[in-house]
Amino acid sequence: MDPLSAVTWPLRTERLSIHRATTADAEATWVWRRLPEVGEWISSAPADFETYRLRFAEPARLLNELVIGLEDSADPGNRGRLIGDLMVRIEDGWAQAEVLERARNAQAELGWTLDPDFQGRGYATEAVRAVIGACFGPLGLHRVYAGCFAANEPSWRVMERLGMRREEFSRKSSLHRSGEWLDGIVYGLLAEEWQDR
Question: Which residues form the N-acetyltransferase domain (predicted)?
Fold first, then answer.
């Protein structure tokens, strides 16, 4: 089953185009995912392109992976350039046995990275806003959530700008590849909260 098939791709915003990732997008996304300042915060940071390419091309990953293209730019040479990627992992919500079916594919975990050359201009907020709209629109989800290391302030600031609510702050719950246990943070948003905005 293709969890994102109910959405008409690409999603378009004022400045961006968001489409389903393909194996051909691996090289473009490697440009920023290989950078230490990005790799510091993401779940997996392969040291070489071939390892990254193989992981990027895994069918299960491609089902959940989106890429962000720049559509409106003062520099015409940047039109269509990929500047970020998004993960939308649809999953079951927790439920008691008698209502288990109603919780199937009810929520999504979101994640994102952005090329540092394009940070600080609202692109991440714009892209995640569009994806949340798809989650609560054509996908009909009940809830979305996103987590990050608490030290990754730019990421949780995006969550706050989008009206997501801090649901968890956990002390030293996440082991960083540096070997240090770091604080974790999770934000969530319900469909009815999104519609009330």
Answer: 16-192
* 11-141 CATH, one of 3.30.505.50, 3.40.50.300, 3.20.20.80, 3.40.630.30: 3.40.630.30
> 174: alpha, beta or left, given left = phi > 0 and alpha = psi -120 to 50?
beta
Closest residue by Cα to residue 143 from 192, 196, 87: 192
Question: What's the count of helices (H) and strands (E) in the chain, helices before strands?
Answer: 7, 8
The verdict on pTM exceeding 0.70 is: yes
**Cα 146 from Cα 164, distance rounded (Å):** 9
Q: How far is Cα of residue 47 from the mean position of the Cα atoms in its chain? A: 22
Residues 79-101 pLDDT 10s: 889 999 999 999 999 999 999 99
Edge-to-edge strand list for the sheet holding 107-114: 11-12, 16-20, 65-70, 82-91, 107-114, 143-149, 181-190, 165-175
Which of 79, 99, 97, 82 is closest to 142 using CA atoms? 99
DSSP conformation class of 116: G
Task: Tell me the pLDDT tens digit for each residue of 142-157.
Answer: 999 999 999 999 999 9
Q: Where are the domains of the chain?
A: 11-141
Q: What is the 8-class DSSP label of residue 104?
A: T
User: Residue 65 CA to chain centroid, in angstroms?
Assistant: 8
